[in-house]
Structures are given as structure tokens and as C-alpha cells.
Amino acid sequence: MIEIANIIIVLFIILGAFFHLIAALGVLRLPDVYTRNHAASKAATLGVLCILLATFFYFYFHESEFNTRVLLCIVFMFLTAPVAGHLLGRAAYHHGVKMEGSKVDEYEEYIKVKKSNEPKKYEAYKKKLEKNL
Amino acid sequence: MAVQILLNVCLGFMWMFLTTTYDLVAFIKGYFFGLLILFVFRNFFSSRFYLYRVYAVVKLLFIFIKELILANIAVVKIVLTPKLHNTPGIFAYPTRLEKDWEITTLSNLITLTPGTLVVDISEDKKILFVHAVDMNDVQDEIEAIQTSFEKAIMEVSRK
Residue B78 has what pLDDT? Predict the structure, then answer.
């Protein structure tokens, strides 16, 4: 029983470390803020999750201590990481950071339409979008 | 939904008082019988029998976890390929959801799906702006996934 638990713990730690490594590599390798954001916000979340789960299992099986704080931490990570990614991307866009090699940018159009402050233009823009889909 | 759960808890306590045994087992028994009673009287409530909604929430949770794992596999693939040949871009996605919490949940789910990240939500809360890592092949697939997300969220909020 304790052997199986050890295998699970080691597996989770290795997986977590691997995902952190991937997140770091992604931040180094990818060309612009937005794609880096993808790598960091996703891989780091799952990495932290795996390591926290390993911690939880270690204390549960070896010290038989049911640590709810670790589980709460997992829930908070789940809830906050995507929001942080969203806000970083948004802040970068509004500071005029360019995307590397992009073709499509429908957000730029939206900002233009919004700044013109004409509801008619906005309606036309929305209709155009619905045709696209 | 909240009213039904509260009523069910009250029925559990009622069972404890009727049998004059005050422990957890008695409460669970009472809760179970109260559940049956609520199921029989489900037509008298304005919303659905609440277990359906609990089931929908659990399903949404599993979708969340599955998508997180899939997204990470996709990230690993993108990062570890020797040559980067993706074309990023931002596309607009009109949503049918209306309440704030639904839109928040949808954008969180989209952020955790493979290759997409929500950049902004339009002021009238009708359009989501999503940054995609690869615009070429992913888009149709993304649309399919997101309609399934929307369905799952609507299943939770349906009356």
C-alpha cells in the first residue's frame, strides 16, 4: 500500500516539475507576449497542481494527516490562474504590444468601432461577425 | 435550487426529531427520504428537481479538469517542436450567455482550452475576443468545443 502511494507521489512530483520546465522553456522560446502567456498560464497551473497533490498525498499516507489547506490552495489556483492570464494579455494589448506574425485581429477593429462612439457602426460590426461564423 | 436544498435539510432535521435519534446517520436517512419526497412534489417548484443541476455542475467540473490536461499536452507539443510555425491571431466569438457568472465561467474554460486565451469582453457582454495560438486549423475545432462548453453552462443555469 505504501509502495503504491510512493509511486503516485513520485509520479506527481515528476509531472509537476516537467510542466514547470515546459512553462519556462515556453517563455524562453515563444516569440511574443501572448503566446508566452499561453505557455505560462496553462503549464504553470497544472505544474503547481501536481506538486500540491503530491504534497497532499505524502502527508496523507505517511503522516496520516488530512491537510485541507493544500486542497484549498488547489481550488484557488484553478480559479485565479486563468483570470491572471486574461488580465496580462489584456494589459499588454492596451499598451500596444504587437503580435508576432499575425494575420487576423478582430479586436483592433472593435476598438476602432468603439472609439468612434456610434451605435450604428457597432450594430453593423456585430452583424458582420455573425456572418463570419 | 437553494430553496429545494434548504427544504431538504429541514426534512432531514424533521426526521431526526420524529425518530428522536440525533446523529449523522439519522440525518442522512432523513435527507434521503426528504429527497424522495421532493422528487414526488417536483412539479410544485418553479425550477427543476435540483439533483439534475448538481449533476450538471459535476459534469462541468470534469470538463474543466479534462480541458486543463488537454491544454497542457497542446502546450507541450507547441513548445517542444523544433520549428515554430504557428500563426497567432485574435478572433471574435459572439456568445449567447447572459448572466455575469456564466460569462466568467465560459471565459475561464476558454482560457484553459488548448490554444486559446480570452483577451477582452465587449462592453455589452455579447462578444468575447479570443487569442488563438494557431488560426489555421484550430478555429473550427474551437468553435465545436465552445458550443459544447456553452451547452454545459446553459445546462447548469436552465430553469
Answer: 82
